[in-house]
Amino acid sequence: MNWFFITLGYSGLSPKAPGSVGTLVSLPLGMLILIYFDAQTLFLATILISIIAIREINKYEAKSAIHDDKRIVIDELAGMWFALSVAPAISISIGEVTDLQNGFLVQSLLSFVLFRYFDITKPSIIGRLDREAKGGVGVVADDIVAGFVAGVLSAVIWQGWLQLQNII
């Protein structure tokens, strides 16, 4: 079991809101991958990390008998990166990050907010996965689905905003 890995560089040891801290650590890392590589690389990295996370979480749960320990935040990285691989999912240079016209920063921040909302409230299938799936799959799967929903909703909101600007 790799404590450094499953707590995302010990960010999960934060006494206040470890899930939010883990997600906040994940956001700039995912944005950097999008800037220096592309959305496909981020998506594949998310899949790889998710598979490793499931294995490591299963090891932890077998030793500790604690399911979904709040200090485990590698699942937040998987969910946040999944959201970012869906939206903004564009290639930009480092100098274009603050250009609000390309939507990169807006969609990234919106993905963060929406992911946290879905991860905390766990509506619909997200909550069902959280309650019913066992082991590492249960810990990671709800975050992956929350990330997917957050990413799609971020992209829809951004596209809606662009269409609204064309109308006005």
Characteristics of this structure?
0% strand; 168 residues; mainly alpha; 7 helices
Description:
The protein is 73% helix and 0% strand. It is mainly alpha-helical and 168 residues long. The protein contains seven helices and no strands. It has one domain (17-167). Helix 2 crosses helix 4. It has helices at 3-6, 18-36, 39-64, 74-86, 104-121, 124-132, 135-167. The mean pLDDT is 94. The termini are far apart.
Provide a concise account of the structure shown:
The chain has 168 residues and is mainly α.
- Mean pLDDT score: 94
Unreliable parts: none
Proportion of strand residues: under 5%
Head-to-tail CA distance between termini: 55 Å
Given the structure, what is the number of helices? 7
Query: How big is the Rg?
Result: 16 Å
Query: Helix- and strand-based class?
Result: mainly alpha
The succession of helices and strands, N to C, reads HHHHHHH
Bin the helical content: over 70%
Total strands:
0
In one word, what is the shape? globular
- Describe the main β-sheet briefly: none
User: How many separate domains make up the residues?
Assistant: 1
